[in-house]
Each structure stands twice: as C-alpha cells, then as structure tokens.
Design goal:
single chain, 168 residues, mainly alpha, 7 helices
C-alpha cells in the first residue's frame, strides 16, 4: 500500500479541522455550551492549521516549501495546544485557586478595545475552569482539543520531515 500524496494528506488535515470546528459549533449551538475565551483561542488555531493545510493542498509546493507549510501548520497546533493546556490546568485547579469569573464574551466584545479583548481571550478566567461536558464521562472539551492538536501536530510534522525522494 502506498502512502498518499502530500496534497491528499494536506487536504485530509483540512477536512479534520473542518470536522473539529463542526463539532464545536454543534456543541455551542445545539448542546448550548457557551465557549470561554480559551475555547475561542483554540478554535482560531484549529482554523489557522486547516487554512495552512488547505493552501498547501491547493498550491502543491516543492519539497522545501512543503516542509515550510508543515512547520507553520505544526506551529499552529503548538499554539493551540498551549491554550488547551492552560484550560486543562485551570480545570484541575483546586476550587479555592480558580481565578474569578469575568464578564461574558459579548459584553467584552462590545465594551472593551481590541487589545483588552484579545488579552482576555488569551488569559482565561474562572469561566474557563468550569467543566460543562465530558465525552464518555471522561474527557473534557479542552482535553479532546489537546488530543486533536497532538494528532494534527504529528501529521504536520510527518509532512515536514517526509522522505522527499519517494514523492512523485
């Protein structure tokens, strides 16, 4: 069995990112789970990773540029996993150490300048420490996001380091 071409693998990573975003949108709009700032930050990096892989699939670059696309997409996964890790850490803090909850995201978007809103999204608060959903009673949403980022990172690094001599 032969390994799929880089173009197909990049397109598959893009599809995985679309499915991931579809799942979180289902959780938000059907299950009515309101996302916190760290959740939104994680979504942004899933979208960035998918976008980079879509561009790589469309572009079908040379070996050097293909590796660059792989590194950039992997970097998006690292940044996203940082925010997932931060939220996992907040969720596992003892209750007395959880930071205070801030105002809702819609209030922040409407009443604060962009840089303060961005700072809030990247820092997280007590809202990010709440666990509203567990998949199979085990994994929280940021833990599932961390698994997705690790999987995507592995695929992107494979693309970056793939033996270029075997690619037609």
């Amino acid at each position: 069995m032969s390994i799929p071409s880089p173009r197909i693998i990049n397109f598959c990573v893009f599809i995985l990112c679309v499915i991931t975003i579809g799942i979180v949108l289902y959780m938000e709009y059907v299950l009515l789970l309101s996302p916190c700032g760290l959740c939104i930050s994680q979504r942004v990096f899933v979208i960035f990773c998918g976008f980079v892989c879509l561009i790589a699939a469309i572009h079908n670059p040379s070996a050097t540029t293909r590796a660059t696309y792989g590194y950039v997409a992997a970097a998006m996964c690292v940044f996203g996993s940082y925010f997932a890790g931060k939220q996992i850490w907040l969720q596992h803090l003892p209750e007395d150490q959880v930071p205070a909850c801030g105002p809702g995201l819609s209030y922040i978007y409407e009443n604060f300048p962009f840089m303060e809103t961005l700072s809030f999204l990247l820092k997280g608060d007590g809202n990010c420490a709440e666990v509203h959903f567990r998949f199979l009673g085990i994994l929280t949403i940021p833990e599932m996001a961390m698994i997705a980022f690790i999987l995507l990172f592995g695929i992107c690094m494979y693309m970056a380091f793939r033996d270029q001599s075997t690619i037609a």
